[in-house]
Design brief:
By secondary structure, the protein is an alpha/beta fold. Helices cover 38% and strands 16% of the residues. It has helices spanning 2-26, 60-69, 94-97, 108-112, 126-133, 149-161, 174-183, 204-211, 216-219, 234-241, 254-263, 283-286; strands at 42-45, 72-79, 85-87, 139-143, 167-171, 189-193, 223-227, 245-251, 266-269. The protein has an 8-stranded parallel β-barrel with strand order 1-2-4-5-6-7-8-9, surrounded by 6 helices. Helix 2 links the parallel strand 1 (42-45) and strand 2.
């Protein structure tokens, strides 16, 4: 009998310790009250671009379209070989520009010669984009993982320090989010996460950690940007209950929109036929921008 009690106590103790460790790993940061602007907007994914890329993603034209429609937007930031910040999603320039080469191996002069998706739109400099928006709408800035990580983080932080409007940063790379935790603790930061099923076998463990938000111990994000069709995942639901803001990506139809409305505080979307008329335009005036 005594041995049975010892076993029960041991198992109970190990379970309690395991739960405590898990909670420590996934616990998000407390979101400051002055970031309440985030849920009040809808965010166009890479700007309000067209499906045929005649208005290319991450272009000045797509961002201007989002602003005119009254939306905030999400954009991607990368660093060139000469440490300039550009607005671009892929590691390679091939899909959008038809040119081989990693963004971090190309200079800003080389990138300036490229055009997006066969249009006359260029890859924007981050500084030009910020000057164009000038605080009119809020920004979700996704920072792309890069061998230039420390310089990239510092450059983005310095650029956003003087941005005259609401903004936040997010990344799939927890070391990037962790950099902002250490160096810009007051700047709203988010951890991007998804299943990662298509990752290379050598990277699947990292995606497992990310999907289960175990990297929160490094990043302590204020918000979780989670794949919209993954709301049943226990880690997502736990972080939501622990007080993290949640951002859905990427909403592309009515069903996903309904899911985002039910489970998330904000959504990143791409336009679809029959999408709701959200009437976002008055939000800028309400927020005093």
């Amino acid at each position: 009998m005594a041995d049975s009690i010892k076993i029960v106590l041991l198992v109970s103790g190990l379970f309690a310790v395991s739960v405590a460790i898990y909670l420590y790993l996934v616990w998000p940061a407390r979101t400051p009250a002055d970031f309440s602007w985030l849920p009040r907007w809808k965010y166009a994914h890479r700007g309000l671009f067209s499906g045929d890329q005649s208005i290319p993603e991450n272009s000045i034209a797509s961002f201007d379209a989002a602003i005119r429609a009254g939306f905030g937007f999400e954009l991607d930031v990368a660093m060139t070989a000469d440490h300039k910040l550009v607005v671009f999603h892929d590691n390679s320039a091939f899909r959008m520009c038809g040119v081989e080469g990693k963004i971090w191996t190309l200079t800003s002069e080389e990138i300036a010669t490229l055009r997006l998706a066969g249009t006359q739109e260029r890859i924007p400099l981050f500084s030009d984009l910020l000057a164009m928006v000038h605080g009119r709408v809020p920004l979700i800035v996704e920072i792309k993982s890069s061998p230039l990580r420390p310089a990239l983080c510092e450059a983005v932080a310095n650029a956003l320090d003087t941005y005259p409007g609401p903004c936040c940063v997010e990344s799939f790379d927890p070391l990037i989010v962790g950099w902002f935790r250490k160096h810009r603790p007051a700047m709203l930061r988010g951890q991007l996460a998804c299943r990662g099923d298509k990752a290379d076998p050598g990277r699947r463990f990292g995606w497992f950690l990310l999907r289960n938000l175990l990297t929160n111990v490094l990043a302590r994000p204020h918000f979780i940007a989670y794949q919209v069709n993954e709301t049943s995942h226990p880690a997502f639901r736990l972080c939501r209950r622990l007080g993290a803001l949640t951002v859905a990506w990427t909403v592309r139809n009515d069903d996903e929109c309904a899911t985002a409305d039910q489970w998330f505080d904000a959504m990143i979307f791409e336009a679809w036929e029959g999408m709701p008329d959200w009437h976002q335009g008055e939000t800028a005036e309400r927020d005093g921008k």
